Every structure is written in structure tokens, then in C-alpha cells.
Amino acid sequence: MSTPPPPRSLTCSPRPDPAEHAPAEGAFGWLHALGPRGRRAFGGAFGGYALDAYDYFTLPLTMVALSAYFGLNSGQTGLLTTVTLVVSAVGGALAGVLADRVGRVRALLLTVITYAVFTVACGFAPTYETLLVFRALQGLGFGGEWAVGAILVAEYASARHRGRTLGAVQSSWAVGWALAVIVYTMIFSLADDDLAWRVMFWTGALPALLVVWVRRSVRDAPEAAAAREKSARRGSFTAIFRRGRPGSPGLLRTTLFAVLLSTGVQGGYYTLATWVPTYLKTERDLSVVGTGGYLTFLISGAFAGYLTGGHLTDRLGRRRNIWLFALLSAICVLAYTNIPSGADTAVLVLGFPLGFCMSAIFSGFGSYLSELYPTAVRGTGQGFTYNAGRAVGAVFPTTVGFLADGWGVGGALVFGAIGYGIAALALLGLPETRGKELE
């Protein structure tokens, strides 16, 4: 009599999904390599960062109208940006800790809800002081979204493709920026400026749609979540400031130089992102539609720069990519702001390389900062360093605002090139991490 087969175990491993092991070759090999869960995480991070950009640019695009409505000088309008960026440091640090303690997806949802709610609130502001408060609170969510989304995707990505994968996430900033310019052009062409700036802020409710999808579809990377849960010191600020000891390297040096790197890159970037629309309208005398057209070249360059920089950071390494584009960004700033009066075609053409270089330098940030920190404090380390740099870098656009009254906006924008020099120097204190596997 034959022996019956043993019963099938009720706890057997599920059949592997063939998509998880799809070939990682070709132009979109990095996307296939993420697998189904990773691609959903990518979609959540991409959408969150695009809408983060959209909500951020509601301010720079409406600054001329705001100045007229509230009777502000250049210093006061620049302060709106500075407050956003300074408070974003607090929001980024808190979101990083939350990401390590309660998970990447939960922290991502909180950041998106926060920046959406307070962007809409800005549209109801009755006074400049109220607008300043609402914009500061918007910075809490704005500061945390990128760091949390970047870590979520980095923990799904392979070491081979991490640079281009995170570069693609970064490219969503240009998508959100472009959407903001399109909506701005439509609203300000159809409505009076005194109403148009309010409507622009009210459209910041768009991220609510993303929140519903992320909550239902996106999950943390299982291996990273398990490793994080095993650590007794997850989400610890003291850990990222601990000095090294024999046999136990600390993270203090890494944290300090990563903050300096972020300060330089973001000081240069936000100087341009904040003041170029005003420069085009006030010193180049462009109309609303004309400003939108010129910004199209800048944004197209930014999108191409993010994607190209992502590939280069995998090929050249994290440090070489940042060094290269720090130099090129500084050169482009000097060229763009010294174009003679009347040479508007040159302003149009140079917008593309300017956007390209100042964005390509960011492509390696998501992968680089993720690779500098262990899993237990990856959110804390990346959230703090990126946003502390953003807060210190916020001094740059404010300085331009105060200098603009005497130097003109174009002359003061040269100050942004200094930031890229600081970034290049900061790399001297940081290691190369290309090819590093995240535990």
C-alpha cells in the first residue's frame, strides 16, 4: 500500500513574483529592478515630491503680486522664503525621526498632509504676518517629504541602480515646478492679481488625492523595516552626533560635512528658484506669459539635468558628480546674470543649461545621504543633514532680497554662486559611497 503524500504546509513560502526578478537592463532597467512593491513606492515618492515642488513654487511665482497687495519691500518678500526654508529644517529633522520610529510610509503621509493644508491656508491670509506664519507651518511638511520619500525608494533600489533611481525621483521636482508655472500662467491671465495669488495657493490642495492612493498602495521595504525594528537606537539624534571610538566609527564628522554640503547646494539653488521669476518680470520686463515661456526652458533643463545626473552619479560616483556640477552651476549663474540688456534671446537659451546644471547636482543627493547612514538612523541622518543645510542655505535668498535694492536682482543673484563653492569644499570631508549595499 502506498504512503500518502505529506500534507502541504500552511506556512510555505509564497510563489515568487517573476516581476521581482525581471532583467535590470535597458533604459528602464532601474525601474524593473525595483519590483512591484518598489515601483509603487517610487510612484508615491515621485508624486509626493512633485506636489511638494508645486506647493513650494506657489510663493516665488506670486511674489510680485504679494508685494503689491501687502506693500512689501524686497527684504520682506525674501523673508517669506527664508522662513519656509528655516522651519523646513525642523520639519525635516522631525520627519526623519518619525521615519525611523513609525515607518517611511506613515511619515510620508504626515508630511504631504501638512504641506497641503498650510499651502491652502496661505490663500486665506488677511495680513502679511499671517501669511508668514502659514508659510512657516507649510515648511514643516515641505522639509520632511523629500528625505522620507528618498529613503523609502533607496531601500528598495539596488546599489547598481540607486543613483539613477533616486535621480528619477528628483526629476519630479521639475514636473511639479512645470505644473505650477502652467497653473500660474492660466490663473494670472484670467484673474486680477489681488485674487489670483489667493487662488494659486488654494490649488495647493491637490496632494490630498495622492494621500488616498499612498495610504492604500505603498508599503515600507520589508527587509529595511525588519532591520529597523531590531535596533534599540532607531531615530536617535545623539547617534548621528556621536564621536568615533577605536573599533566603533562615529557619525559626527559625516553629519557636519553633509550639512555643509547641503548648505552650499541648496543656498545656490533656492537663490535662483526664488528670485529668477522676479528677475525676469522686473529687470527683463517680461509679461506673465513671457515669464512662463522663459521658465519653460529653465524647467526643461532641470528635468533633463535630474535624469542625466542620476546616470552620471552611478557612473562617475557621488562625489565626482557633485564636484562637476558645482563648477558648471557657478559658471552658468555668472553667465545668466551678466547678459547685456536687450539680449533676451540669450536669456532664453541660457535658461536650459542653467536649469540643467543646478538640478543635476541634486541627483546624487538621495542615494548619497542614504548611503552615509545605517538603517536605524537613516531617516534621522538624512532628514537632519538635508534640511539643516536648507535652513542655513535660506540665508542666501534673503541676502539677495536685501542686496537687490542696491545691486538689482540680477546683480545680487551672483551671490548664489558662492553656495556651489561651499558644496565643493564640503566633499573633502566625505567618503565615496557608490556601490554600497544598504543593510
How are the elements arranged and paired?
Blueprint: H1 29-32, H2 35-57, H3 63-70, H4 74-102, H5 104-122, H6 128-154, H7 162-190, H8 193-202, H9 207-217, H10 222-230, H11 237-240, H12 252-282, H13 288-315, H14 318-336, H15 344-360, H16 365-372, H17 378-393, H18 395-407, H19 409-412, H20 416-426
Describe this structure in words.
- Residues 1-20 are annotated as: Disordered.
- The chain crosses the membrane at residues 78-98, 105-126, 132-154, 166-189, 195-214, 251-272, 292-309, 321-339, 345-366, 387-404, 410-430.
- Pfam families: MFS_1.
- This protein is an all-alpha fold and 439 residues long.
- 73% of the residues lie in helices and 0% in strands.
- It is built from 20 helices and no strands.
- It has helices spanning 29-32, 35-57, 63-70, 74-102, 104-122, 128-154, 162-190, 193-202, 207-217, 222-230, 237-240, 252-282, 288-315, 318-336, 344-360, 365-372, 378-393, 395-407, 409-412, 416-426.
- The longest helix has 31 residues, at 252-282.
- The model is unreliable at 5-23 (pLDDT under 50).
List descriptors.
single chain, 439 residues, mainly alpha, Growth Hormone, Chain: A, 2 domains, globular, MFS transporter, MFS, membrane
- Mean pLDDT reading: 82
Number of spatially distinct domains: 2
- Derived from helix and strand composition plus strand pairing, the structural class reads mainly alpha
CATH topology of the largest domain, anyone? Growth Hormone, Chain: A
Number of strands: 0
Q: Segments where pLDDT lies below 50 for 5+ residues? A: 5-23
Overall morphology: globular
Largest sheet: none
Please report the distance between the alpha carbons of the first and last residues: 52 Å
